[in-house]
Amino acid sequence: MNTGMGADPTADDRRFLMAVLLVSVARGDGSISQVESDKLIQLLCSRLQIRSAEALESLSAAVIALADYQRVVPRLKNIAGNLSLGEKQDLLIMLLEVAAADGARHTEELGAINQASELLGMSREAVHAAFESYFSSR
């Protein structure tokens, strides 16, 4: 696996970034509900064309990485820096899907989405476009 430092990220790096951000939003309200857990697995499987076991492995690695978030931030930013704007917006939409999965609005989850958009290096306009895309499809 690529270290995420100084080289183009691999598919594993992108999966890692996606899993970390998804988990950070899902646990934004203090815990990950069963509905959110199911949504995390479904999103990773459908977007990455992987099996449930692989999705669970990625999510487990994300939980471990989040234990030392400040240490992993540089790697996440490096990976994010190599994503296209469309990839970043797609990821932000996935984060919105996770936040909405349990049907409850949690300020902490929205805060985690905002933090993720900053980590991804997205402009306000790009974030707004992703939100518009998400809400227009509902």
Class from secondary-structure proportions = mainly alpha
Oligomer designation: single chain
Q: What is the domain total for the residues?
A: 1
Q: How many helices in DSSP terms? A: 7
Helix content: over 70%
The radius of gyration computed from the alpha-carbon positions, rounded to a whole number of angstroms, is: 14 Å
Main beta sheet strand tally, sense and closure: none
Outline the low-pLDDT stretches. 1-7
CATH first level: Mainly Alpha
User: CATH topology, what is it called?
Assistant: TerB-like
Give the DSSP E fraction (strand runs of 2 or more residues).
under 5%
Order of helices and strands: HHHHHHH
Shape: globular
Distance between the termini: 37 Å
The CATH architecture: Orthogonal Bundle
What is the number of strand segments?
0
Mean model confidence by pLDDT:
90
> Which superfamily, in CATH terms, is the homologous superfamily?
TerB-like
Summarize, please.
This protein is mainly α and 138 residues long.
Provide an overview of this structure.
The protein is mostly helical and 138 residues long. It has one domain: Orthogonal Bundle (TerB-like). It has helices at residues 11-26, 34-48, 52-66, 69-81, 85-100, 107-119, 124-136. The N and C termini lie far apart (37 Å).
Task: Please give the structural blueprint.
Layout (H helix, E strand, L loop, with lengths): L10 H16 L7 H15 L3 H15 L2 H13 L3 H16 L6 H13 L4 H13 L2
Helix pairs in contact: 1-2, 1-3, 1-5, 1-6, 2-3, 2-5, 5-6, 5-7
List keywords for this structure.
138 residues, mainly alpha, TerB-like, 73% helix, 0% strand, globular, disordered N terminus
